[in-house]
Amino acid sequence: MPLSRIYTATSASRRRRKALTYSKGESVSGPSFTYGKFNFDYSINFQGLKLGFEDKNGMYHYKRNIVGWKHESNIASQTGIFYLQPIEPLNLPDNVTDFIEIQFKEITIEPNGKAVVFLTMPIEIGVFLEAKNGERNLLDIVTFCHPKFSLYGAASRGVITRFYESEVYSMPPAVDNYKEGLLRLEIENDTDEWTTVGRVILYQKGLILYYDETTVCACAKMIVRSHDVADVVGIAQPIREGMTESIQVFESRKTTPFCNIEGALLDSTFTMDMGMR
Q1: 263 lies in some domain
Q2: Rounded to the nearest 5°, which phi and psi values hold at 90?
Q3: Out of 46, 63, 95, 213, which could bridge 1 as a Cys pair, Cβ 3.0 to 4.6 Å?
Q4: pTM (2 decimals)?
Q5: How far apart are CA 86 and CA 105, in angstroms?
């Protein structure tokens, strides 16, 4: 993905749902990464990631190194402001897909029943520059995870996905906020039969991330329409008050070359019509 485009915070006109009421609890399993807004004199040396800006006669020089993976860039900026925020795990090593697939231990849900579970998911970290007029530019993306990819469906009718495996939790588990986020998934069985679910596929446009000093999270809803069909939509909602909405790295496409399931994508809703296990 080219890193020279301008990105803005997700639309303010979208209705943000009230935050849920989960406490922080034991939400930290290791050292926490600090997200937020910083001046160029702020530098990072964290878990193998080194990142910072050097002032060279009025021109800033950005340098990043994470276990030998390096990036450098010259920056002309009057504000000297940058942001570190969690972003969707769909940008590295390239813009391969718009979909993330999370596989988990199967859950069997009674007819017309509901279940709320927490899953873990990978995240990436975006480095954004901010201009005087508030416009933000994506400068760099880093990750502590090694991406895996899969195919949901068949080569002739399916989608490439960013693949991840997760345990299933009834409450928010402890995670490392620099490489994992939490997905609160509400599953609604809209049928008169028992149904079993073992994976969920999210479209990038609907994956809205939130963060605070310990946790990165997103929320989604999965509505089961039949034994092998479900609609999945992201929800603009944090899991608790005080969380900040991340800048969303999403660029609308005129076509969706990695989605060849006709009729499967409507706005930010993805229809899983080739099985949920």
Answers
A1: yes
A2: -130, 25
A3: 95
A4: 0.87
A5: 26
